[in-house]
Amino acid sequence: MEIIGYKCFNKDLLNRYGKKFRLGKIYITEGSIKFGNSGNGFHLCKNMEDTFRYFDAMNENVDICKVRASGVIVEYSDDYYGYYDMYAAEKLEILHVLSRREIIEYALSLNDERLKRFLSGIKLTDKEIEEILSLHSASDVRATIDYYQKKKKDAYRRLYGRNSD
């Protein structure tokens, strides 16, 4: 089995545990593959925006990569929080480190629901926000930008007409 997806790293392709990864190298883990913090295997997501669940791309510089998983692969979905198509794999290859432009192009292609997840997970520049708003102007997308990107804590209250009491 093989899956193409996304994996987020700390800057310079360091994973959460300080291990350095390299472009083009195939990594292999041994043992039973299991998803989760106490699991085993290389984690990845089919949707880029879901990788932000595991990295603080709002406050830290991260590298987002396109990856290929193979060998034994375990799928995980978190219906409660709405995260799907997440995997732990026996083998992982880093195919490409995405440029900032590629990340924004990806965001521009999303539907509003997935875009809101993206907007809540990665810090954007004012120019990037303007570009997204030129294609996605729904009020709930604007509220998501106001809340997560511009730190306006009353964004949803204003959207839904609730007073601050």
Structural class: alpha+beta
Spatial shape = elongated
Biggest pleated sheet: 5 strands, antiparallel
DSSP strand (E) fraction? 25-35%
Helix content: 25-40%
Low-confidence stretches: none
Nearest-angstrom radius of gyration? 17 Å
Number of strands: 5
Order of helices and strands: EEEEEHHHHH
Helical stretch tally: 5
Q: Termini distance? A: 54 Å
Q: What is the mean pLDDT?
A: 90
Q: How does this model look, in words?
A:
With 165 residues, the chain is an alpha+beta fold. Helix content is 26%, strand content 29%. The chain contains five helices and five strands. The chain has helices at 100-108, 112-119, 126-135, 139-149, 155-159, and strands spanning 2-10, 26-28, 42-45, 62-78, 83-97. Strands 1, 2, 3, 4 and 5 form a five-stranded antiparallel β-sheet that branches. A hairpin with a 4-residue loop joins strand 4 (62-78) and strand 5 (83-97). Helix 2 runs parallel beside helix 4. 28% of the residues are buried.
Features of the shown structure:
165 residues, alpha+beta, 5-stranded antiparallel β-sheet, 5 strands, elongated
Task: Summarize the SSE layout with pairings.
Layout: E1 2-10, E2 26-28, E3 42-45, E4 62-78, E5 83-97, H1 100-108, H2 112-119, H3 126-135, H4 139-149, H5 155-159
Antiparallel strand pairs: 1-4, 2-5, 3-5, 4-5
Helix pairs in contact: 2-4
Task: State the gist of this model.
With 165 residues, the chain is α+β, with helices and mostly antiparallel strands. Helices cover 26% and strands 29% of the residues.
